[in-house]
Amino acid sequence: MAGPIIRGLLPDNTDISSGERTLIGGCDLVELAKEFGTPLFVYDEIHLRSRCREAVEAFDGNVAYATKAFLCTEMARLAYQEGMNLDVATGGELFIARRADVPGERIVMHGNNKSLEELNMALREGVGRIVVDSFNELDRLDQLCADSGVSAKILLRVTPGVEAHTHEFVSTGQEDSKFGFTVKSGLAAEAVERVRRSPHLELFGLHAHIGSQVFDVEPFAKAVGVLAEFAAPFDFPELSVGGGLGVPYVEGEAAPSIKDWAEAILDACKKAGVKSLVSSEPGRSIVASAAVTLYTVGTIKEVPDYRTYVSVDGGMSDNPRPVLYGSGYETFLPRANQATRQNVVRLVGKHCESGDVLIKEAWVPDDLVVGDILATPVTGAYGYSMGSNYNQVLRPAVVFVSDGSPRMVVARESYEDLIRRDI
Ligand code: LLP
């Protein structure tokens, strides 16, 4: 038995006061489902803007939105309008950021295996920082700069050897990693020397990202300590601490706010005697709890002695996180948001495999019926962006809602889209 969905998991501008209607940004979720179809990503635009502002304020403007968490042209535009720089990790993300008219110098380019084409693109677009990840990349970039007569502003990605206490797949601060130059092994020091010998590479400082969905500020402070000690002799202008702040997905979880996270990092920098500008790259904490996904219930099947399966019209193609990381989510009925959720069911998608589970133990009210609209909160990060077309299921539309009006920022895919690249 679970109580009504808790307010803390819903976007800031959610109104559950009537019980029978759930409004986000003044828009009724059941009406949105009717108008735009399901599955549907619904983002509270004011919530997005307020998290961007919180981050910009907390890091004194030195903060890039990690676009991998959720990117479309309108999101890039929004983050930039709110004063954020943009962190991109591929040519594709860079393309969208530029298409949204984000100036090159406001973009940070990442990637552990950037292609020549991507490096060329970064130079051509004049990105503000290229975060260099390996010796091979240093060679490639050096050569490209020599050939084209431009110089590159770079940060070196280092792995501080810090355990982030998160899922193995999203843990990146440890030494045994595909990312960056390890500090302990001396590779980071060697990379600094290597960059300093190049007339084409301007070294602005260091970058580290210890992992994602981290609930505790302590590993960040630890990483700062390692970086500060390493950087002390060099007097770099910038130190980037990456992203990684966690968010609560289910009842009972708690995470620091962006402001608290920033204060802990800046405090650790101060204590460690860091004089350089300190920047960061939050993704999840900007967008995750800004959105809910709406689904239509299509089938309810009771398997005697086992469980009830509730199937919805999306699944692992719009939210692969449960399958990939065993991530937990909650669900509720927007038409009965105060209802006690008495029944535990398995919420599954429409894909042709048993692993297609959205919530292993989902609590729902006992009057749930076929045709109901179900919402899963905290689906704003790494859902749409990691979505797929598995089974040629069409990718959902995305709407931003505010002041009682929805605006579609990504259209639902069509069957024609599925064969656009077929020859
Ligand atoms: N900076 C760098 C260099 C990163 O690699 C990442 C995330 C971020 C910033 C943003 O981290 P955030 O603030 O969003 O935690 N797909 C996984 C998350 C992978 C994160 C990868 N890197 C998930 O769904 O949990």
Question: Main traits of this protein?
Answer:
423 residues; alpha/beta; Lyase, Ornithine Decarboxylase, Chain A, domain 1; TIM Barrel; 2 domains; eight-stranded mixed β-sheet; 12 helices; 27% helix; binds ligand LLP
Q: Could you please describe the fold and organization of this structure?
A:
With 423 residues, the chain is of the alpha/beta class. The chain has two domains: 7-44 and 288-418, Lyase, Ornithine Decarboxylase, Chain A, domain 1, CATH 2.40.37.10; 45-285, Alanine racemase (TIM Barrel, Alpha-Beta Barrel), CATH 3.20.20.10. Helices cover 27% and strands 23% of the residues. The chain is built from twelve helices and 20 strands. The protein has helices spanning 29-36, 45-58, 73-81, 91-99, 116-124, 135-148, 187-196, 218-231, 258-271, 284-287, 321-325, 415-418, and strands at residues 14-15, 23-24, 27-28, 40-44, 64-66, 85-88, 107-109, 129-132, 152-159, 181-182, 201-207, 238-240, 277-279, 291-303, 307-312, 343-348, 357-364, 373-377, 397-402, 405-410. The strands form three sheets. Strands 5, 6, 7, 8, 9, 10, 11, 12 and 13 form a nine-stranded parallel beta sheet that branches. A hairpin with a 3-residue loop joins strand 14 and strand 15 (307-312). Helix 2 (45-58) packs parallel to helix 9. It is globular, with a radius of gyration of 22 Å. Bound molecules: ligand LLP. Ligand LLP binds at residues 66, 68-69, 87, 110, 170, 209, 212-213, 242-245, 281-285, 321, 325, 382, 386.
